Amino acid sequence: MVMKSEKTLLIKHLGDSPILRIIDYFLDNPLFDYSKKEILESIRISRRTLFQIWSDLEKNGIVKVTRKVGKARMYKLNKENEVVKKLIELDMALGKQIMKESVKEVEVLA
Fold it and tell me: Is 29 inside any structural domain?
């Protein structure tokens, strides 16, 4: 998956930082697990930046290894982590808020 140039709701509201881009990528692509290389190609951050951030993501239980494919480790968001649960809730709440605003705009135009 390639990240769109348009910013997601989470990025718009919380800011465009590399760590948030990584988390947002997993939130937007929850069905599969991804290698670091796939993540790098999709969110367009430098390899150095990813590796600086990654150890903290693993240490804090934000991401977890799901399996190994050859030498590559595959990762997913750790949905059992309390911080991840709250980020998922926030992402859903932002989506609901935007939907309500869109419905109101349509009603005003009708």
Answer: yes
Full-model pTM: 0.83
Which of 59, 60, 52, 50 is CA-nearest to residue 87? 60
* Amino acid making up residue 49: T
Q: In whole angstroms, how large is the CA radius of gyration of the chain?
A: 16
Q: Answer whether 79's CB lies under 8 Å from 66's CB.
A: no
Q: How many CA atoms are closer than 13 Å to the CA of 85, on its beta-carbon side?
A: 3
Do the domain assignments include residue 54?
Answer: yes
Residue 4 included in any domain: no
Give the list of residues 6+ apart from residue 95 with CB closer than 8 angstroms, or none. Answer: 9
Instruction: Locate 85 and state its tokens.
Output: 């649960």
| Domains: count for the chain | 1
pLDDT tens column, 28-73: 999 999 999 999 999 989 999 999 999 999 999 999 999 999 999 9
Distance between the two ends of the chain, CA-based, in angstroms?
37
In a domain, 70, yes or no: yes
